[in-house]
Design brief:
disordered N terminus, Growth Hormone, Chain: A, 405 residues, mainly alpha, 15 helices, globular
């Protein structure tokens, strides 16, 4: 039976997924463009004020809050192709126009456009998986989409440094920033064009039972979500897990001021890089195992159980090699929880539209990430992971086949 379902899945699903991953990568390129080159960008645009440059990243988190529900409504109402496509168009054009921004104000306007487009992409992860992939591959598809975010993040962090180093050596830092904006802008535009030309809404034959279902409206779906015990517990776990990951990622530069057995100045970059690499691997490996064994909850329980000690390790250990292992493991496990949890939500709450559950869970992590970055220390975050562990213990496992619990 499993073999028949796999055979009925369209091979074109991989084309759709890859073309969806390109705008996902672009969201991260646009978001974090100036983080590794903040000092040079401040010298060019704001007279040395790096706090104003930091706003280019902050606006992405702020825009997600009001735009998440409109984005989910568009995806649920218009379908994958054009519901997500609205955001892809806004993102692609705004990212391209950043190349021509004459000053800080115009650059911020185009950056805001990129930020508005982002929720349309991030809230579509489960829609792509549900529309195109058999149930044996849904978490893997969401995991690959998640992996694309970290590929974009890694490219932005490392490419920015490399390009600027070359141009600064030539005495032309402004040319380096211009080159970065051109590379990222052209990438975003190419992703937009390929998406519009080749992405289809769904295959002729539904690849899984949920894809064939008639979905309820978004408003009805929201009511159903907040009546679903398992979804409430999952949302609590997302609020803690995704929020903690976002907060710790944003604090990585200031986390290692204590004495270490290496130069503390190199620790943030190396451990942050290992966290990203761990996330890339985790986003593929754990969702694939989740699909293989048709289990979701047990993986979420295990991830929450290991998160608290890993957080304390990052906070208190001073041995650099152990910190590197902890950073890689933290990224590996925490990132993998995202696609597994999103897939669990779809399977537990259908016929609620996929983008509705996806959007609420992602929004909860965005809001809590801001709160934790501002008000929580690492010890408090570790304690919250224990609460998240309890939430996952209270959830019920999915059935062997799709069905509402």
């Amino acid at each position: 039976m499993n073999g028949n379902r796999k055979q009925s899945a369209s091979p074109y699903r991989w084309v759709v997924l890859v073309l969806f991953m390109l705008p996902a990568i672009a969201t991260q390129l646009q978001w974090i463009t100036f983080a590794p080159i903040a000092t040079d960008a401040a010298a060019l645009y704001t007279g040395g004020n790096t706090e104003s440059i930091d706003l280019f990243a902050v606006i992405f988190m702020l825009a997600y809050i009001p735009m998440s529900f409109p984005a989910s409504w568009c995806i649920d109402t218009l379908g994958l192709k054009w519901g997500t496509g609205i955001g892809v168009i806004i993102l692609g054009l705004s990212g391209f126009l950043r190349m021509f921004a004459p000053d800080y104000t115009w650059l911020m306007i185009f950056q805001a456009g990129c930020a508005i487009g982002q929720p349309f992409v991030l809230n579509s992860f489960t829609k792509v998986a549900a529309n195109w992939f058999p149930e044996e591959e849904e978490a893997l598809a969401s995991g690959l989409a998640t992996m694309s975010l970290f590929l974009g993040l890694a490219c932005a962090m490392f490419a920015g440094d490399l390009i600027m180093a070359h141009y600064k050596q030539a005495g032309d830092p402004a040319g380096g920033i211009s080159m970065i904006l051109h590379i990222y802008g052209i990438f975003s535009l190419v992703g937009l064009i390929l998406y519009l030309l080749f992405v289809k809404d769904k295959p002729a034959t539904p690849p899984n039972p949920i894809a064939a279902e008639r979905k309820v409206s978004m408003i009805t779906g929201i009511r159903e979500l907040f009546r679903n015990r398992d979804f409430i517990y999952l949302m609590g776990a997302f609020f803690i897990g995704l929020g903690a990951f976002n907060a710790i990622s944003s604090k990585i530069d200031t986390m290692f001021k204590r004495p270490l057995d290496v130069d503390p100045s190199i620790a943030p970059g190396i451990i942050g890089g290992l966290l990203i690499i761990g996330g890339v691997f985790g986003a593929v490996v754990i969702p694939a195992l989740s699909d293989r064994f048709r289990k979701r909850r047990i993986f979420l329980v295990a991830i929450m159980a290991i998160a608290a000690p890993l957080t304390l390790a990052l906070e208190f250990l001073s041995t650099f090699s152990v910190l590197c292992i902890a950073g890689f493991a933290f990224g590996f496990f925490l990132v993998s929880a995202l696609p597994v949890g999103l897939t669990y939500a779809v399977e537990k709450t259908h016929p609620v539209p996929e983008a509705t559950s996806n959007g609420i869970l992602m929004l909860s992590g965005q809001v809590s990430g801001i709160l934790m970055a501002l008000f929580f220390n690492m010890t408090a975050i570790a304690a919250l992971f224990i609460v998240g562990f309890i939430f996952t213990l209270l959830m019920s496992e999915i059935n062997g086949k799709k069905g509402k619990a």
